Amino acid sequence: ELSLPFASFWYLIICYGLTGWRVCLCRIMKLIPSLDTKKFRRRPDLLQKEDIVTHKKIPTNAFDGIMEGYLTLIDIILPKEGLLLKDDGSDGYAGVQGVFCHISWERQQRDPSTVPMFRDLQQQSPLCRGTTVTMSNVDLHSLTKQARDYDQNTHNFTATAAKKGHQASPPTAVVFHETRCGSTLVSNLLASSIPSKVRSYSESSPPLTALMACEVLKKQGGNSNYCDPEAQTQLIQDVFYLMGRITRPERPQFVFYKIQSIGSRYIDLFTKSM
Fold first, then answer.
1. Cα 227 to chain center, whole Å?
2. Phi, psi for 181 (deg, rounded to 5)
3. Which position among 154, 183, 194, 203 has the lowest Cβ density within 10 Å, counted as fewest Cβ atoms?
4. Which ranges of 152-199 would DSSP assign to H, the alpha helix?
5. With a threshold of 0.90, does the pTM exceed it?
6. Sheet holding 171-175, edge to edge
7. Is there a contact between 231 and 93 (Cβ–Cβ < 8 Å)?
8. Could you give phi then psi for residue 133, rounded to 5 degrees?
C-alpha cells in the first residue's frame, strides 16, 4: 500500500506532464486536506452568520465580504439614465453599481515595484477573478451608507463581525500629474515608505470614473440635467470612502492615490468634493 505523500508525489509528476503545474497543484490541494487553502482566507460566501432577528445561522454573501473589507472596489458602472439625486425624497443618488473583488494587498506590501499599477495588482491577485461581483441589487450610495454604519458599529442589519483592525482612512494624499513625469516612481515610494501602514492605489478606475462622471454622461445624453453636480459630489465621496476601508491592526493607516493623467483636469472638483 502506497503512503499518501508517496502517492501524491507521483500523482504530481504525472499530472504536471499532462496539465501543467497550476492545474495540477489545485487538484493535489483538493486531495490532501492538510494542504487545503490555509494561506488563503475562505471566501465570505462560504461562511455563515447569525441572523439578528431569528438568531439562526444563515449563509453569508458578497455583501458581507464588502462590509468586512474582504472585497475591494475595483470599478463603478454609471447609470445610462444619468447621475441624479433620488426622486423619492431619500438621501443620495441612484443607479450607480459597484464592482468588487478580493485584492492581494500583501503583494504590494512585500514589493511595490512588482505591482506598479493597480491593474498589475489586480491581475496578480489570484482570488480576484473568482470573487468578482457586481452589486446590481443595491446602488453604490446605499452600499456606502451601510458601510459607514457597519464601520461605526451602528448597523441594524445582519452581517459578519468586523475584523480586528477594521477602519476607514480618508485620502492621505492624492497625486495629480502629467504623463511621463515620474508619478509611478512617486507612487511606489509612497507605497514602500511604511509597507504595513500604507495602501497605494495607482491609477485605479473608480476615482477617475467618479471625477469624470458628469462630463461623460452629458456627452452621452446631450442634456444639461443628465448629471446633478450634487449627486456627483456624493459619488466622489463614496468612492474614496469605500476604497479607504482597511483591515490591518497597525495604526495609523495611510491611503495614497495616483490619478490617471487626464484626472489633473478635475483637481478643483476633487478638492471641492472632499
1. 25
2. -120, 5
3. 154
4. 183-193
5. no
6. 171-175, 254-258, 198-202
7. yes
8. -145, 135
Give the tens place of pLDDT for each residue, 125-171: 999 998 999 998 889 999 999 999 998 888 877 777 777 767 889 99
* Helices 4-19 & 21-31 angle (0-180, nearest 10): 150
36: left (phi over 0), alpha (psi -120 to 50) or beta: left
Q: Locate 169 and state its grid cell.
A: 482612512
C-alpha cell at 40: 488563503
Q: Can you tell me the distance from the alpha carbon of 146 to that of 140, in angstroms, rounded to the nearest whole number? A: 10
Decide if 162 contacts 244 (C-beta within 8 A).
Answer: no
CA–CA distances in Å: residue 21 to residues 17, 40, 219, 238, 244: 8, 19, 49, 42, 36
d(CA 148, CA 68): 11
Q: Write out the E strands in 102-227.
A: 133-135, 166-168, 171-175, 198-202
